[in-house]
């Protein structure tokens, strides 16, 4: 079943380009996004005033990325909450609220209970699920299925890129309905999304190089991850993967937060992964992240950068650079997750751990 791969996780990482491509299939025509599953909801989607995205773990990080995209493209306020926090804080929701839940399994009890709570409160509900006919999908007003195929390894990989793809499609669908993006602008964004599978395939070619780094770092006790904008959830995901697979203490930060505390953690030799934004684009956060790199490097950090191919500005300060093909800001996460997934998996493997079934964890968390 692993088809020659050493683990399901390795196989599923390799299937990510297809997971994105299959999730895009049948959801656009003539350069515009159209999600047939949402037919009949046009008036509802034009009338909503805010969106609350719910999920747990990796799915919640897909939600954080979704917030940046939906707010930018569809100009609707979006809040992201962990499902298990949501219903215990008397959230302010009503019939003008859309609750968008994200779950690979569609059976996560925390998310299911949060969706039920939202339905009781009169909210509209849409779910992004990877499992056909799952409970959360059945409870929701509509479901946008991700077509990543079955994910067996406990660590979510291909489901995540499919979730980000689906949430982007949803953002573009909403922008079209609400008239918040020009036709040309929207079709450029769609074309960028459609270009992801081929680009992601080239990122995966760095597997052996990442493995080498992971093996070399197998005694590491702590790793930090930094990113900004949509790179921030990527940093959080990199840290989660390392915790759950390699049992190494890891933390992800928004790079702008460094000077508000975390920079005190930097001492000589501390490994720090940095997700570097593309240097292109008028509003690029690239200069700010490069200056963060200089700050941590000056304090002795070992900098492991994920940067756009051809970005020479990080080379003088990085101990290692993994490259991703050029893409505008929103599409970088879809390319930047893979090196971090591979790093965590290979480090766990180097420690002799079971990467498909880490200790204390279940694939589907069906208890609260
Ligand atoms: O099935 P779900 O997407 O609802 O699962 C949510 C989380 O439990 C899941 O993403 C978890 O964080 C993964 N083990 C992360 O790799």
From TrEMBL:
It comes from the Bacteria. Its EC number is 2.6.1.16. It is found in: Cytoplasm. Residues 41-180, 213-358 form the SIS domain. The active site is at 363 (for fru-6p isomerization activity). Keywords: Aminotransferase, Cytoplasm, Glutamine amidotransferase, Repeat, Transferase. Catalyzes the first step in hexosamine metabolism, converting fructose-6P into glucosamine-6P using glutamine as a nitrogen source. This is Glutamine--fructose-6-phosphate aminotransferase [isomerizing]. It comes from Leifsonella bigeumensis. The lineage of its organism: Bacteria, Bacillati, Actinomycetota, Actinomycetes, Micrococcales.
């Amino acid at each position: 079943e692993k088809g020659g791969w050493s683990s399901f996780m390795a196989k599923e990482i390799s299937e990510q380009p297809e997971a994105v491509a299959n999730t895009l299939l049948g959801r656009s025509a003539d350069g515009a996004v159209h999600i047939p599953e949402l037919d009949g909801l046009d008036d509802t989607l034009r009338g909503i005033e805010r969106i609350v995205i719910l999920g747990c773990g990796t799915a919640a990080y897909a939600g954080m990325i979704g917030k940046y995209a939906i707010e930018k493209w569809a100009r609707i306020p979006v809040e992201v909450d962990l499902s298990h926090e949501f219903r215990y804080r008397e959230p302010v929701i009503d019939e003008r609220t859309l609750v968008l839940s994200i779950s690979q399994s569609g059976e996560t009890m925390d998310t299911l209970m949060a969706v039920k709570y939202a339905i009781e409160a009169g909210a509209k509900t849409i779910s992004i699920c990877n499992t056909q006919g799952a409970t959360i999908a059945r409870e929701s007003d509509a479901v946008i299925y991700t077509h990543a195929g079955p994910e067996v390894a406990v660590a979510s990989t291909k489901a995540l890129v499919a979730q980000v793809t689906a949430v982007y499609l949803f953002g573009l669908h909403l922008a079209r309905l609400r008239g918040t993006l020009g036709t040309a602008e929207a079709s450029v964004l769609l074309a960028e999304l459609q270009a992801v599978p081929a680009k992601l395939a080239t990122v995966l070619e760095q597997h052996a190089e990442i493995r080498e780094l992971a093996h070399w770092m197998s005694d590491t006790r702590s790793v930090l991850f930094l990113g900004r904008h949509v790179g921030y959830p990527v940093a959080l995901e990199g840290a989660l993967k390392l915790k759950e697979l390699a049992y190494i203490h890891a933390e992800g930060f928004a790079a702008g937060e460094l000077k508000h505390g975390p920079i005190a953690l930097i001492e000589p030799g501390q490994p720090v992964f940095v997700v570097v934004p593309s240097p292109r684009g008028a509003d690029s956060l690239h200069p700010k992240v490069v200056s963060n790199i200089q700050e941590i490097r000056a304090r002795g950090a070992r900098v492991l950068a994920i940067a756009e191919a051809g970005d020479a500005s990080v080379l003088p300060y990085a101990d290692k650079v993994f490259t991703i093909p050029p893409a505008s800001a929103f599409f970088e996460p879809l390319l930047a997750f893979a090196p971090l997934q591979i790093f965590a998996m290979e480090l766990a493997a180097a420690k002799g751990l079971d990467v498909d079934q880490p200790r204390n964890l279940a694939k589907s968390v069906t208890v609260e």
